[in-house]
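User: Could you check the structure of this?
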Amino acid sequence: MNLDFSRKDLKDDVAYEEAPFLVDDEKGSEISVGHVRGPPSSARRRFPSSLNIVLFVLIVLSNGAWWISINSRSAQESESSCIRPQLVWSPGTAAIEYERVVLNRSIESENVFAGKRTKAMDEAWAELIKPMALKISKEELERLGETSISFRDGSGFLAEMAVFHELHCVKHLREHLTLDFCNMTEYELEFERGHVDHCLEYFREAAMCRGDPTLAFFTWDDGIPKSKRDTTNECVKWDKLRAFAESRMVDVSDYSVLNRDG
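Assistant: Sure, the predicted structure tokens are below.
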């Protein structure tokens, strides 16, 4: 049996074309190993394998994708915005922007909205919930797939934003604590109980709907764990959202502006 593996016999063989351990000297002469000689090294440098090319392209693409992702995330953070699911549309969503806010949770906290009821408190609360009634367009109402009461002049439909209803309930519960129940009729008492129960239930649903994951922390106070007074929260920029509500605000104290036919 002839076992002569000469170049003539192997020139069409894959082993000849893919022999990475074969090198040439500077004069171009071929060095053989057991009579097997490889192609010039310059040829191998000019024609890299397909696998190397594919790997190089994949590395470039993956690094490019990573770079774009990092820059996109940095841009979002610089704008103090965050992405939230939008399963239910609202025209007010366009006014939503978030920021980090330190909230004071102390029992001793005092501001114009808390403490003993005063004229200044009543005025502050009235101003806070003033944009409760809003006007939305026919197109916006149709987009939501809902129905509502229309305005007689055909300018739109009546709506309210949930956050202002929640604030209304806080206001009502505060007023409830100062009511003179002795001078109320049984009908008034029953109505008040129903209103307060509604507000408490509104808060329960709102808290569960949002599911705020913000953490509070504790410290020792005379041997008893006590939650710290301040927490850093992710909050809506209130001034921006309120400005949107004020731009849609309507006065419906006079029901004659509303269309009673729907």
